[in-house]
Amino acid sequence: QIRYSIPEELTRGAFVGNIAKDLGTDVAKLAAANLQVLSDSDSQYFSVNVNTGVIMVSERIDREQLCGQNPRCFLHLKLAIENPVEFYRIEVEILDINDNPPQFPSDEVSLRIYELASLGARFPIQPAQDPDVGTNTLQTYHLSANDNFNLNVKARTDGGKFPELVLERALDREFRAFHYLVLTAEDGGSPPQSSKIRITIQVLDANDNHPVFDKPSYGARLVENSPLGTLVVKLNATDVDEGPNGDIRYSLSSHNSAALRQIFAIDEQTGEIRVQGNLDFEEATVYEIEVEAKDMGSPTMEEHCSVVVEITDVNDNAPEVILTSFSSTLSEDALPGTVVAVIHVRDRDSGEQGKVLCHVSPDLPFQLRKDYEHQYSLLTSTRLDREHVAYYNVTVSASDLGNPPLSRHTILPITLIDVNDNAPQFEQASYEVLVAENNPVGSVLVTVSAADPDSEQNSRLSYSILRAGGTDPGLDPTRYLSIHPTNGQVTAKFPFDYEQTTYLQFHVEVSDGGSPALRNRTLVHVFVVDQNDNAPQVHFPRAGEDSATQLRISPSIVPPALITKVVAIDADSGRNAWLSYHLVEATDLGLFSVALRSGEVRIMRALQETDASEHELLVVVRDAGEPPLSTAVTLVVLVEEKGPEALQGSEAQAADGGGLPSITLYLIVSLVLISTVSLVALAALGI
């Protein structure tokens, strides 16, 4: 390993060392060995002349940039030669030169020092920074000549130096308000380099003067009952200090009583004393106010003075109304002449100004009765009704006989206590409800509502269901219905069946919570609306389940002969009971027909030898409901060689005989009755 030392900031091409000489070899051999220089850093600061073996500077070297404040700085190189291959380590030490002067963070700094600062007080100054090392870095500070401050330099273990100003002589703001100093930082280079910072010191004022009033005492005269805000007197005090030390605040002294503080107030900025309470000659004829003026210094200084205020008497006392006895609640059934309050009046003035007259508004159901001098009784004059007026504000006006007269108004709030004198009233005299049959259990059919103008317990209502007079004893409404006792919702206990019940009426009774309770009733009409919930039932021809009805006809039957008649009945009403008959399936659809409305089954053409001897017909009976319901019946027609009457079978004879007209008549009558009831119900609902 070979070591060289060079100063920083050498120019390019500057000599570092002769490698051939230091290695003890011939320059020609180095050139023949293909000499190469390898650097450990990113920058190539050095180069080698293979013809001379001299190492030279190839780039500018800044020690502070490379190594910062490290006391020693090195750059490392490697020399590589061939034949044979060898490596040599070269270490170049970069020596510091004094190329950086000390630098303060700013060119000027300002300090604010209290003029009463203690001797020996220290005021640190931001230190200067010098990136050089060793003797070239910052070494000392110098302070310009002055009368009050010395310089102290604190040295830390890491070599840092921090300047401090030390107060050696007391400051006096009145003598000199500002001090201007210059601090110089100097390094140890040769020649040395330095920099300066200007220090401006402002001496802060101390509070050494107290305020002074322009008069030791003040006097004023006021009329009693002066308006609030009336100016009593304006004080004036001065302080020769400046800033907060000369800023004066006025206040009432703590020696003043609490009552006086409620009557007078002082503006702390202007020193104006104004009236903020009632001035009463009868209470005090003279007020003596103690006032203090303080500056805003620390510590504060103060001065005191007194203000004497004389009060001039006037007629300023209004009558007073005193309630000897008073009840704020009154029953609404109280009789006229009932005593509500006993009132005592007085006036602190004398003579005519002390005589008082009282009255109340004639529009109220109350009157005043004069019992004797200065005492009145408040009585009821008419009957009261809480539902009409529940609350009264009775204003009792008392006026004296002064000039001008003074008066006082006292409001007596009177609340009427409710009496249960009003029965509940339903919103409707009767209710009409349409409910579809098969309604869900618990569904709300109707909500009845009543109101009671009474209050609290007297207006708490309870509902119940009663059977209406003249209804069928077997139709107990409580069997089918229930009512919520507080909200009046009527609900169904069971689904309604139109085929069993088409109409229901009942009374709903409401009672209040008074004692005794008052009641009222309303009538509720419930109309059950039919739903298509019954399929048609075939009454003729009769057949068992999963079986067909057999009919016999002669091969020579003449069309359109009646074979049989399908008779069905639907328990529903209206459109839900309108039936239609349809031939859905047949062995030969063109051979038979079924009448749409009557259900008559007829043969449509003459039988031929090629026709089958047995025909199966599927007849569907369908109602007109929504959705429609249907029932099917199967007819088996047998073609046999018998007499014409016998071949039709006993069922056919019955269908064409006397049984059928009675059934048809029954259906027609039932349909007419159901339609009539439905029309009447709809008309009643419309009314």
TrEMBL record:
Main location: membrane
Organism superkingdom: Eukaryota
Matching SMART domains: CA
GO CC term, one of those recorded: plasma membrane
Biological-process GO terms, alphabetical: homophilic cell adhesion via plasma membrane adhesion molecules
CDD domains, sorted: Cadherin_repeat
Keyword hit for Cytoplasm: no
Record flagged with keyword Protein transport: no
InterPro entries documented for this protein: Cadherin-like_dom (IPR002126), Cadherin-like_sf (IPR015919), Cadherin_CS (IPR020894), Cadherin_N (IPR013164), Protocadherin/Cadherin-CA (IPR050174)
Cadherin domain mapped to chain residues: 5-104, 105-213, 214-321, 322-426, 427-538, 545-663
Transmembrane segments: 663-685
Localization per record: Cell membrane
Keywords tagged on the record: Calcium, Cell adhesion, Cell membrane, Glycoprotein, Membrane, Repeat, Signal, Transmembrane, Transmembrane helix
Protein name, UniProt field: Protocadherin gamma-C3
Upper classification of the organism: Eukaryota, Metazoa, Chordata, Craniata, Vertebrata
Gene, per the UniProt record: Pcdhgc5_0
